[in-house]
Design goal:
heterodimer, A: MetI-like fold, 16 helices, globular, B: 319 residues, mainly alpha, 2 domains
Chain lengths: 288, 319
């Protein structure tokens, strides 16, 4: 009886702590959402409420109608994400599938060439000079190609492919498929969990990138969303300076709306891929 | 595997049949080699060619002269580096912040995972997990924007809340004293939930019979946590510890770069941000390359050492 009472107290503490932690994560985001959607009149009288008092999408409309600025930056971010993820998945699948063949001559040498880059890199300076010399500046390719492969993701995928039953491929070979056909007609369709998880990792990486853009984008017209957000909020530049023209809006609310615009795409994809996370990550932990 | 290949090719002259099978295998896999070519080319261009940065560190490189015409200066860049107070400051900041992180965030995520495991109400648990994994997928630009907004001294949510309670809090984001705490706390906010994924998965892999046996022996849930769960994820903890250790010098650029400002360089400037500024704001390419090489060498050494320590401890190593 005594034990029971103790246990329920412990339980209570655990639930309280976890709920508290989750609230700490949620409240700042929720606050920004509420303020960004409250009407200008409500905002002026009360800037800090957490319970929505009004709902207005005026700031969001402004963001999408602003000349240059947000709408164009959004488009660049979407293009980068789509193109980059496709490129990354293509290269990663090719590399991972080849390395998943245990009796491929030269496999371990090739694998070591890849793994070595996880240990040692030439550093920022030569990388910067290289990409500039390749004349990729101010193109979407500069944001995608130089960071197209993550060795870590490639190894996760390789481990997944290694674990697939060989019999599938053998029967495909009897049907007269070659290795490339087997890869995209059989292997990729049955590897949905890992493809989904890795695609998400890549896509989020491209969507969230500001670093490559800081290095290689100098034209206002090619700035992705993250750079524009950085300039507006972190560097606190005047909106017109960033190339955003918003007549009559409240700058604070407008910035908050832009933060939410940066979060929404991640929120939309996340629930669908969440169930694959654990599987994706655990595979990476399997030893070579 | 590599031994097998070399012995096969080494004996190729004596045993024609063996080299025959090797050749046959290569032909059998010709399509796989074909699709591997773009991957290999990518690695050569974007990972191996930049390694000439090692040589740049010993040069006085200028863009106009280029790599081949720039004069060699021996160890001058490195000598300058160790006489540069800002570099040394950045180095010690990096290590100090990393140690703080190891002491706070690392155990925090383990505790979080253990607590999650104690929750039996599955719907509640899924909800909490969904919420705490989420910030990992937001960029540091977004996270910094959120915190800058709510901590803003004029109109931030937190500042106003404290003001309403009669407490005047300083602008923590521009104070050198509080900057490291800001880094640690925001990193816990963003990443500690995600770090539990691997522990939760490891706990799920523990044999259920161990818990049954412990229950029969009369162990309550706390004892079970201590004697079954924790030992069960010990190797995962060790591996995560090693991984984190190997990243000490590379961790945190995105975070610091988006949070810091010249007012907090004293406590917040780390190696990567310092290298970034010397390279791109000051255009001192060779100097930055030397700093980068120094950092790379230490990182590699750390990874190799820690990996060997794990092996000595009898755990499965990573690489």
């Amino acid at each position: 009886m005594l034990f029971r009472k103790k246990f329920s107290l412990a339980s209570f503490l655990i639930y309280t702590f976890l709920t508290f932690f989750a609230l700490i994560i949620l409240i700042p985001v929720w606050h920004i959402f509420v303020i960004s959607t409250s009407s200008p009149t409500v905002y002026i009288t009360d800037q800090y409420h957490l319970i929505p008092k009004s709902f207005s999408l005026a700031e969001y409309k402004r963001a999408f109608h602003s000349i240059g600025g947000i709408a164009r930056a959004l488009l660049i971010s979407v293009e980068t994400t789509v193109l980059g993820t496709a490129l990354s998945m293509f290269l990663t699948c090719c590399g991972a599938y080849t390395l998943s063949k245990k009796d491929l001559p030269g496999r371990s040498i090739l694998f070591r060439i890849l793994v070595f880059t996880m240990f040692f890199s030439g550093g920022l300076v030569p990388f910067y000079i290289l990409v500039r010399n390749l004349k990729l500046n101010d193109t979407i390719l500069a944001l995608t190609l130089p960071v197209a492969i993550s060795t870590y993701n490639l190894i996760i995928m390789k481990n997944y492919f290694t674990g697939l039953p060989v019999s599938l491929e053998e029967s495909a070979k009897i049907d007269g498929y070659n290795d490339i056909q087997i890869l995209y007609k059989i292997i990729i369709p049955i590897s949905k969990p890992v493809i989904a998880a890795i695609s998400l990792f890549y896509a989020v990486g491209y969507w969230n990138d500001y670093f490559m853009a800081t290095l290689f984008i100098s034209s206002n017209k090619m700035f992705p969303l993250q750079i524009v957000l950085r300039q507006m909020i972190i560097q606190n530049m005047v909106l017109a300076q960033v190339g955003v023209q918003t007549v009559g809006s409240n700058p604070e609310q407008f910035k908050m709306a832009c933060i939410i615009i940066g979060i929404i795409p991640v929120l939309c994809v996340y629930p669908f891929v969440q169930k694959y996370f654990t599987k994706g990550i655990m595979l990476g932990a399997v030893k070579e | 595997m590599s031994q097998k290949i070399s012995s096969t090719s080494g004996n190729a002259k004596k045993h024609n049949t063996r080299s025959g099978t090797l050749l046959k295998k290569v032909i059998k896999y010709k399509y796989l080699y074909l699709i591997f070519i773009p991957v290999l080319v990518w690695y050569i261009i974007f990972c191996y060619i930049p390694m000439y940065g090692i040589i740049m560190a010993f040069q006085d490189y200028t863009m106009s002269k280029g790599f081949f015409a720039s004069p060699f200066v021996g160890l001058k860049n490195f000598r300058d580096l160790f006489n540069d107070d800002y570099f040394l400051r950045a180095f010690s900041n990096t290590v100090v912040i990393a140690v703080y992180r190891m002491l706070t965030e690392f155990p925090f995520s383990i505790i979080l995972a253990l607590l999650l495991n104690e929750v039996r109400h599955m719907k509640y648990r899924k909800t909490i997990q969904t919420i705490i994994y989420l910030p990992h997928f937001l960029s540091w630009v977004i996270v910094a924007s959120i915190f800058i907004t709510i901590f803003s001294p004029e109109a931030g949510l937190v500042t106003t809340l404290f003001a309403a309670m009669g407490v005047q809090i300083p602008d923590v984001l521009t104070k050198a004293d509080s900057f490291r705490s800001v880094l640690i706390l925001t990193d816990i906010w963003k990443e500690s939930g995600w770090m539990t994924v691997i522990y939760v998965a490891a706990i799920a892999g523990i044999n259920v019979q161990l818990y049954e046996a412990a229950t029969i022996d009369g162990a309550g849930r706390w004892l079970q946590m201590w004697h079954v769960t924790l030992p069960g994820i010990r190797s995962t903890i060790v591996i995560m510890f090693i991984l984190t250790l190997g990243q000490i010098l590379t961790w945190g650029f995105d975070q610091v770069y988006n949070f810091y400002n010249p007012l907090v360089y004293d406590t917040g400037d780390i190696l990567d941000t310092y290298i970034f500024r010397t390279a791109l704001a000051d255009i001192r390419f060779s100097y930055a390359a030397a700093a980068g090489l120094f950092r790379s060498v230490i990182c590699t050494a750390l990874l190799l050492i820690s990996n060997n320590v794990v092996k000595l401890l009898g755990e499965e190593s990573i690489y």
